[in-house]
Amino acid sequence: MRYGLISDIHGNLEAFDQVLSDLDKLKVDAILCLGDVVGYGPDPNECVALVQKHADVCLIGNHDEASLGRVDLELFNYMAREAIEWTMRQLNKESKDYLLDRPYTHAFEECLMVHASPDEPRRWNYILSLDDAAHSFAAFEQHVCFIGHSHTPWVIDLNPEGRMQVRQDYPITLQDGHRYLINVGSVGQPRDRNPAAAFGVFDAEKKEYILKRSPYGFAKTQKKIRATGLPSFLADRLATGQ
Q1: Are strands 154-158 and 2-6 parallel, antiparallel or unpaired?
Q2: Measured in Å, how far apart are the chain's first and last C-alpha atoms?
Q3: Whether 199 contacts 151, CB under 8 Å
Q4: Which of 9, 67, 102, 108: disulfide with 60, CB 3.0–4.6 Å?
Q5: Contact 98, 45 (CB under 8 A)
Q6: Which residues pair with 111 in a beta bridge?
Q7: Cβ pair 140, 180 in contact under 8 A
């Protein structure tokens, strides 16, 4: 099986459309979404509908949950909070019902999926250091844990001796005896100074993971964001991948 792994779409329809087109060309067998379908971007309902149509599995992310009124908005910075409050007003009943039913984790093929961290998935912890990664490795037993949340793609390889190495030499062949944390990046708001949408492809038979990028017409998304009255930085950042 070949899996397309997507995360952090954040209501960016143009980026998501391009990624879906590229995944179709790559002929993946299933699409797995790690959450944060909405928040920040101008097309929340359209993105939820596409995830519902195309994703075989979709987790809930912190912005999804906040847009349902289940997270204290004081936990977010003011731009994220404004976007969540706007999204809450836009979501239709079908989108809300779909998001409400999303799980926090999903296991498949000796792999675990979680939006933020396998260490207390409902607390939305970030993995920003090797110390954070060590806590996360202790919280799951599978060969691989796929995550999103920070919008920055990377792979952390834990070898049998307990040493960790950050890897970005794609494609990466996953070795027996090693364990991996893999951040698949963000479809709708990359933050690694590359504006192209990010997603991953995992070949379970070959035990191979590759990060893919999809350039898209972000100017159209920027125009839509500005038309909503949301902070202009949410539009500006799409051009620089920050």
Answers
A1: unpaired
A2: 33
A3: no
A4: 102
A5: no
A6: 108, 144
A7: no
Whether 113 and 122 have beta carbons less than 8 Å apart is answered as no
Share of the chain above pLDDT 90, in %: 98
Sheet holding 172-173, edge to edge: 57-58, 30-33, 2-6, 197-203, 208-214, 172-173
Express each pLDDT in 110-167 by its tens digit.
999 999 999 999 999 999 999 999 999 999 999 999 999 999 999 999 999 999 999 9
Model's pTM, two decimal places?
A: 0.97
Q: How far apart are CA 84 and CA 189, in angstroms?
A: 15
Sorted by where each starts, the structural domains of the chain and their CATH numbers stand as 2-239 (3.60.21.10)
Beta bridge partners of 31: 4
Rounded Cα gap, residues 57 and 37, in angstroms: 12
Alpha carbon distance 225, 221 (integer Å)? 6
pLDDT in tens, 59-93: 999 999 999 999 889 889 999 999 999 999 999 99
